[in-house]
Amino acid sequence: MRKVFLIGLSLSLLSISAIGCSNNSSGNVIKVATQSPLSGNQATVGEAIKNGAQLAIDDHVEAFKKLGFDLKLAPYDDQADPKKGVANAQSIGADPSILGVVGHYNSGVAIPSATTYQKNKLVMVSPANTAVELTESGNKSVHRIVARDDVQGSADANYATNKLHAKNIFIIQDKTAYGQGISSKFQKQAEANGAKIAGNEGITSGEKDFSGVLNQVAAAKPDFIFYGGIYSEFGILVKQAREKGITVPMMGGDGVDSSDMYTIAGDAIKDVYYSTTAADVSNTTEGKKWAEKYKAKFNKEPQSYAYYGYDAMNVLLKGLEDAIKKNGNKKPNREQVLDAVHAIKDYQGIATKVSFDDKGDNDFAKIFIHKFENKQYPGPLVGEEGKQ
Amino acid sequence: MSNILSALPQVLVDGLTLGAIYAVVALGYTMVYGILELINFAHGEIFMSGAFIGTGLLLSLGVFGIAMPAWITLILILLLTALLTGLLGIGIERLAYRPLRKAPRLIPLISAIGISFILQDLVRFFAEFKTGNYIVTGTTLFEGKVTIPFSSIIGTFHNATIKNNTLILIGITIIIMILLDIFVNRTKWGTAMRAVAQDQETAALMSINVNKVISLTFFIGSAIGGATGFLFAQQYATIDPYIGFILGLKAFTAAVLGGIGNIRGAMFGGLILGVLEVFAAANLSTITGGVIGSEYKDVFAFTILILVLIFKPEGLFGKSVKEKV
């Protein structure tokens, strides 16, 4: 037993000295982490976020070299799992060369992880999280460049009731923080607009047979279905609903914003809408140029969150640069970076303009409503709504 | 209440579909348990591998431009998938269970869990290899649907629609179950299997090759599990490497419900669980006036499972048939 203890002790001493070494040698390395699902069934979007951030880093490497710093990306895989996200957040907090985080994709992961960032005074800029609680909890670390669920949910409801004239709405959601958040906001606004809610039911994500819930939908005969959740379930839901002869328009939030909807639902995808906080910039000249660059590097079409990954990283790097300058061209500490990012006003990104308010929300965030049509992704834009 | 009644035909159809899948997968659990008293947790993953192997074969047929009548394609792919997953099952038994046969019960259970992780990630690797996305959507062999006019039989019922795929799925699973029942009860090898299940050593003394019988059990269980995987992929079109987990868990539950180790019990357990689940999903909020929604369908189904097990711990069919396997 004693021997084991001694070996353990010497090992831990060794590792401490190893950490010490790496600290000394990496004094001028600045890393920015990304946290998004790189594996699991949301990997398509998670990777787009990481790749977008990677391009932003590539753009700034030279500028930071001139300032005397070696800029690097530290990608983390949160597996869309809160436990994994928090564990990653802890190892990010323990790495002194990391000065900021771009992430996450899932609000359910972002909320607990943000508590860890706050403890470490790390700044987080989210490219995708829309849950209201994220910025309402008074966590100073948290910033986001996208709109919030309360804006998104009510914008969706306005579109459904005003433009699509929905009167009798059935809501299905996947019981996650995101799905419940957006669908309860949708319900509130839809009811305020005079629509009747025919039902509000949950499904279990990961399952493939939704005929139980759909039988209930068929019995309620709604004229509109809203889904709060992610594309991997919504695609199947659309397919099975159409197979059951439910032909009413269906709509989802930004969680269903993915080109995979076409592959999963196939020809069943008719009259299906989605809202997104991500602007479709693939048609602007600047966006096209950027998409070319993205394709050249990653050999893939950029998903819309790739642009936001890029913008979120750029905002963070802008703050980082400000903090370095303010600190007399020396490496700033995490708190200085946090303050500098928080102070950013009127930053023009490729997808959105960014000004953070007190809570860390973006004043310029907007909601865009698209339709899945002709296998075209992103689908044609059919509506647009700003912050209140 | 009238809503529940009028939707009943459709609920039954959907429930039987889901239940048929549970039932066939449950067979794999129950056969292996019957013969080795081992809960083969990798069985759900064999089902999932079957879904991917079958869909892969189907897609590659399309790539090579080989066109055959849908019936022949279906039967060919089912047989090939069954053969491959059956061999996979034998391989798993050889590698992960046979060396541990004399070890305490818990050890092979752990290696079963290990095998299921390995299979999940292997399949994920190969599925991602080409497209970078492991959610695979295959082509469907049989499009179209049939409407059964329940309303003309009894006025309060609504009509039920069934996809052609569903009919095939139910048909094939019933054929599989009948064949298996005949095999186990009427053939020489089936008798050998039952003998090994009752007492391995005595069976060995009666000149039964125990290892061969165990391999055969794994082959059959895995082959029908894998074939069902392909039927599942046809039914729901979209598969991912994680479908085996929840489905395996429920199929295992079905096996326990019917009395684990008992083949007919597993079949009925699966059907009952499927119908209960779909019934709960469709009607819970109507019954409770919106207090409990359909998201609690599993709670409902498993509550019934617990009740059954409290009053009949050996499962529904555990006692009525004494023999295992």
Automatic annotation (TrEMBL), chain B:
One of its GO terms (cellular component) is plasma membrane. CDD domains: TM_PBP1_LivH_like (cd06582). It is found in: Cell membrane. The keyword Transmembrane applies. Keywords: Amino-acid transport, Cell inner membrane, Cell membrane, Membrane, Transmembrane, Transmembrane helix, Transport. It comes from the Bacteria. It is a multi-pass membrane protein. The chain crosses the membrane at residues 20-39, 46-64, 70-92, 104-127, 166-184, 213-236, 242-263, 270-293, 299-317. InterPro entries: ABC_transp_permease, BCAA_transport_permease. One of its GO terms (molecular function) is L-phenylalanine transmembrane transporter activity. One of its GO terms (biological process) is D-alanine transmembrane transport. Belongs to the binding-protein-dependent transport system permease family. LivHM subfamily. This is Branched-chain amino acid ABC transporter permease. It comes from Shimazuella alba.
